[in-house]
């Protein structure tokens, strides 16, 4: 495993050393400001239109308000609403893991998992939302269905290694 660290955005994590940095951009919505976004993918993994499908994406976004424990239920509700919307927009979208509490790098958050098709390939994806103050860390792991079992231990190692770095206190 290799280490990626972004002190400016306040996080680090390990990723498979044989994987390469991928060009990646995603809109985060109009309520947040992206601070950093990085992706590493398996160069021998599945692709769609030359983009990697077997990938780890970590983002840090600045939110308009500071997250408090009283807001925790809204995090789950918002994620449930997003999943319901995706079910109406993507014909074969299927929730694999219902919204659940999680703790990654000492940060309490929520996660979900789903399957869908991209360019005729079935993908498996899990996304973790980790709010800390005015920063929300988002970690997405994704692989083609045929590569999921092979990649899952690598994804789990990346999740276990995620840390907040710098002056950001962990709650």
Summarize the structure.
With about 170 residues, the chain is α+β, with helices and mostly antiparallel strands. The chain is about 20% helix and about 45% strand. It has a single domain (about 1-165), classed as Protein Transport Mog1p, Chain A (3-Layer(aba) Sandwich), CATH 3.40.1000.10.
Provide an overview of this structure.
With 171 residues, the chain is of the alpha+beta class. The chain has one domain (2-164): Protein Transport Mog1p, Chain A, CATH 3.40.1000. Helix content is 20%, strand content 47%. It has a seven-stranded antiparallel sheet, sandwiched between helices. A three-stranded antiparallel sheet has the order 1-2-12.
Domain count, please report it.
Answer: 1
The computed structural class is alpha+beta
Radius of gyration: 16 Å
Number of strands: 12
Which sheet architecture does the biggest sheet show?
A: 7 strands, antiparallel
Helix content: 10-25%
Strand order of the largest sheet: 3-4-7-11-10-9-8
Shape: globular
The CATH class is identified as: Alpha Beta
Order of helices and strands: EEEEEEEHEEEEHE
The low-confidence runs, each spanning 5 or more residues with pLDDT under 50, are none
Beta-strand percentage? Answer: over 45%
């Amino acid at each position: 495993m290799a280490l990626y660290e972004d002190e400016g955005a306040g996080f680090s994590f390990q990723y498979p050393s044989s994987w390469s940095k991928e060009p990646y951009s995603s809109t985060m919505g109009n309520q947040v400001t992206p601070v950093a976004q990085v992706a590493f993918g398996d160069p021998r993994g599945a692709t769609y239109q030359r983009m990697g499908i077997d990938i780890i994406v970590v983002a840090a976004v600045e939110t308009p308000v500071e997250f408090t424990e009283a807001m925790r239920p809204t995090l789950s509700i918002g994620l449930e609403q997003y999943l319901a919307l995706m079910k109406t927009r993507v014909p074969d979208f299927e929730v694999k893991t219902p919204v659940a509490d999680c703790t990654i790098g000492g940060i309490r958050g929520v996660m979900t998992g789903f399957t869908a098709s991209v360019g005729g390939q079935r993908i498996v994806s899990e996304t973790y939302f980790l709010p800390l103050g005015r920063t929300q860390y988002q970690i997405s792991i994704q692989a083609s269905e045929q590569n999921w079992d092979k990649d899952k231990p690598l994804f789990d190692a990346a999740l276990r290694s995620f840390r907040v770095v710098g002056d950001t206190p962990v709650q």
